[in-house]
Design brief:
By secondary structure, this protein is α/β, with parallel strands linked by helices. It folds into two domains: 7-102 and 218-271, Rossmann fold, CATH 3.40.50.1860; 104-216, Rossmann fold (3-Layer(aba) Sandwich), CATH 3.40.50.1860. The protein is built from 13 helices and ten strands. The strands form two sheets. Strands 4-3-1-2-9-10 form a six-stranded parallel sheet, sandwiched between helices. Strands 6-5-7-8 form a four-stranded parallel sheet, sandwiched between helices. Strand 7, helix 10 (200-206) and strand 8 form a beta-alpha-beta unit. The longest helix has 17 residues, at 48-64. Bound molecules: D-glutamic acid. The site of D-glutamic acid has 17 residues, from helix 3.
Length: 275
């Protein structure tokens, strides 16, 4: 049996830390290794091939560190790279290792929250264009109508620490207005980007009170706990000790000063050069 190793958690930048927060709360016993590809973020407007190449490179880095299980805590990477990595790369690269995303756990349950059967998905341009959400949701809830809205300004607002300013209000109002114009019957809105929880309060303020607002962190954490319960052979390969290590492909000083906003506690990162 190979040595136990931390669970890898990946995002293009800081957003995945909101998911890691929820995972750590739910499964504090495991060790975690986080990688933010900050040097190349945001991924949201990049092509399929670029997101796939970047994500694969990062997944290989996790495998080089020994990780047996990697979570893509990024919707854009989950939408544009996960399936190819699972189907094309893993069988030759590391057939016993697992890479999971954040889209499936969310699409499996979203239908339980809607009475009108009209749901809204807010995401990066890349995630919206991939059509991953409508396609995956239709597998579990064929009766749901899915309306999507790309919010290309939201990640830059968060990354630049402008998410509490008036600029954020302007773009949030604009995108929500456009979403609700397309789907006036929407009663559930999903934040399908791991950066968006930082905008949660503002989004909530600008949404009608009857509309439920879902973030992914807890949903993904619950799904991971369930997955590890159903796959004891994978759980047995994940080291336990409550240790968390953080890596970034960009400046560690910048990462450490920003990461606290996303993770909710101080972070000390190390730098990695993916070449
Ligand atoms: N946090 C990523 C997501 O969930 C998007 C950030 C980016 O555009 O790189 O889609």
């Amino acid at each position: 049996m190979p040595a136990k190793q931390p669970i890898g958690v990946f995002d293009s930048g800081y957003g995945g830390l909101t998911v890691l927060r929820s995972i750590v709360n739910k499964l504090p016993q495991y060790d975690y290794l986080y990688l933010g590809d900050n040097a190349r973020a945001p991924y949201g407007n990049r092509s399929f091939d670029t997101v796939y190449q970047y994500t694969l490179q990062c997944v290989k880095w996790f495998f080089d560190q020994g990780c047996h299980l990697v979570i893509l805590a990024c919707n854009t990477a989950s939408a544009k790279a996960l399936r190819t990595i699972q189907q094309q790369d893993l069988p030759t690269l590391a057939p016993h290792k697992r890479v999971l995303g954040v889209i499936r756990p969310t699409t499996e349950i979203i239908g339980h929250y809607s009475e009108t059967r009209n749901v809204g998905v807010l995401a990066t341009n890349g995630t919206v264009v991939s059509q991953s959400y409508p396609v995956e949701i239709s597998k579990f809830f064929p009766d749901l109508k899915v309306f999507q809205e790309a919010c290309p300004m939201w990640v830059p607002l968060v990354e630049n620490n402008e998410h509490e300013g008036h600029g954020a209000d302007f773009f949030i109002k604009k995108n929500l207005h456009e979403l609700l114009n397309k789907g006036p019957m929407i009663d559930v809105v999903l934040l399908a980007c791991t950066h968006y929880p930082l905008l949660y309060d503002k989004i909530r303020d600008h949404l009608p009170i009857a509309v439920k607002l879902l973030s992914q962190g807890e949903i993904v954490a619950t799904s991971l706990a369930d997955y590890l319960g159903r796959h004891p052979e994978i759980a047995a390969q994940c080291s336990e000790g409550g240790e968390r290590q953080f890596y970034t492909t960009d400046s560690t000083t910048e990462f450490d000063s920003q990461a606290t906003r996303f993770f909710g506690e101080p972070v000390r990162s190390l730098s990695v050069n993916l070449g």
